[in-house]
TrEMBL record:
Cofactors named for this entry: L-ascorbate
Pfam families found in the cross-reference section: 2OG-FeII_Oxy_3
Keywords, ordered alphabetically: Dioxygenase, Iron, Metal-binding, Oxidoreductase
Entry keyword Iron: yes
Gene Ontology MF, one: oxidoreductase activity, acting on paired donors, with incorporation or reduction of molecular oxygen
Gene name tied to this protein: OGFOD3
Top-rank lineage group of the source organism: Eukaryota
Organism from which the protein derives: Macaca nemestrina (Pig-tailed macaque)
Protein name: 2-oxoglutarate and iron dependent oxygenase domain containing 3
Region (Disordered): 1-33
Residue ranges with Basic and acidic residues bias: 1-10, 18-33
C-alpha cells in the first residue's frame, strides 16, 4: 500500500527475504487492540451511525419491494389511458354539508310521495311521470287519486330538482360512453323506489330476482340508479349485484352515488333482499330511439 507521501514503506526482514504485508488489518490485531479501538468515542459513534444507515436502507428497501406492502399504481413503462382511485374523504371537508342540495331534497320528494301510499309488501314505487304510486297490493294514479291535494304535497321546486338530476345523469352517461347527450332520450318508467324487509305480498314486491332491463322494459338502452341512502347505515342487504360467470360484481349503495350501465343481456343483475332498514333510490333510464322518449314531469 502506498504511504501518504507516495513512497513504499520499508519491508521487514524475515529469513533474509522481503515479505510484503498490509499494515494494521483487523485480522492482525489482538482482541484487546480491537476492544481498545472500539472504546474510542469517535470510532464508536461512526460504527453506530453506519449501523443506523444500513438499517434505514434495509427498511426502505423492504417498503419499496413488490411484496404486497406497496401497490404500484402506474409503472414506468406503462401508458395509462385513465385510472381512478377512490379514497375516503378526510375531515378537511367537515365544514361543508356532505350532500348539500340534491340528495336530501330528492330523498324528501320520495318520502313525501310514498307517504301517500306504499305497498303492503317490501317494495314501493313513485313515478312522477305517469303518476303511478304503490298502494296496498295495487297501483294508483296519484294525480287523479289525490287531485288538487297534490299541490300541498309537492312543489315546483321538487320537479325542478328532478329535472336537474335527470340532466346531470344524462350528461354523465354521455361523457362516460363517448356519445352525444342529445342522442339519449329519457324513457319510461323512471321512478323512486323504497325497499324494506317487509315480506312480499305480490309479484311486484319480489325485486330480488335476476333480470335484464332491456327484456323487462323494452325501451331501456341505458339504466342509471341514484342512491339516496347508505348501505349498512340506513339498511342492511340491498346491494346491487351484476351476475357474471366466475365472480359476481357488487355495488354497495351510498347516498349520492350514481351507478349506470347498458341495459342489455350483457348486464344481468339483481338486488339483494333488504334485511333491515329502508333503501331509497331513483331509477332513470334512457333510450337511443327518440320514439321512446318522454318529457320531464311537470308540476300539476
Amino acid at each position: 500500500a502506498a504511504s501518504r507521501e507516495g513512497r513504499n514503506p520499508r519491508a521487514p526482514e524475515s529469513n533474509g527475504a522481503a515479505e510484503r504485508r498490509e499494515p494494521d488489518t483487523k485480522k492482525d490485531r489482538s482482541p484487546r487492540e480491537v476492544q481498545r479501538l472500539w472504546q474510542r468515542p469517535w470510532l464508536r459513534t461512526a460504527g453506530l451511525g453506519a449501523g443506523l444507515v444500513l438499517t434505514t436502507l434495509l427498511l426502505w428497501s423492504n417498503l419499496g419491494a413488490e411484496d404486497g406492502v406497496t401497490e404500484v399504481l402506474a409503472r414506468r413503462g406503462e401508458v395509462v389511458a385513465g385510472r381512478f382511485i377512490e379514497v375516503p374523504c378526510s375531515e378537511d371537508y367537515d365544514s361543508h354539508r356532505r350532500f348539500e342540495g340534491t340528495v336530501p331534497q330528492a330523498l324528501r320528494i320520495a318520502e313525501k310521495g310514498l307517504s301517500l301510499g306504499g305497498s303492503d309488501g317490501g317494495a314501493s314505487i313513485l313515478d312522477l311521470h305517469s303518476g303511478a304510486l304503490s298502494v296496498g297490493k295495487h297501483f294508483v294514479n296519484l294525480y287523479r287519486y289525490f287531485g288538487d291535494k297534490i299541490q300541498n304535497i309537492f312543489s315546483e321546486e321538487d320537479f325542478q330538482l328532478y329535472r336537474e338530476v335527470r340532466q346531470k345523469v344524462q350528461l354523465t352517461i354521455a361523457e362516460a360512453f363517448g356519445i352525444s347527450a342529445s342522442s339519449l332520450h329519457l324513457t319510461k318508467p323512471t321512478f323512486f323506489s323504497r325497499i324494506n324487509s317487509t315480506e312480499a305480498r305480490t309479484a311486484h314486491d319480489e325485486y330480488w330476482h335476476a333480470h335484464v332491463d332491456k327484456v323487462t322494459y323494452g325501451s331501456f338502452d341505458y339504466t342509471s340508479l341514484l342512491y339516496l341512502s347508505d348501505y349498512l347505515e340506513d339498511f342492511g342487504g340491498g346491494r346491487f349485484v351484476f351476475m357474471e360467470e366466475g365472480a359476481n360484481k357488487t355495488v354497495e349503495p351510498r347516498a349520492g352515488r350514481v351507478s349506470f350501465f347498458t341495459s342489455g343481456s350483457e348486464n344481468l343483475h339483481r338486488v339483494e333482499k333488504v334485511h333491515w332498514g329502508t333503501r331509497y333510490a331513483i331509477t332513470i333510464a334512457f333510450s337511443c330511439n327518440p320514439d321512446h322518449g318522454i318529457e320531464d314531469p311537470a308540476f300539476p
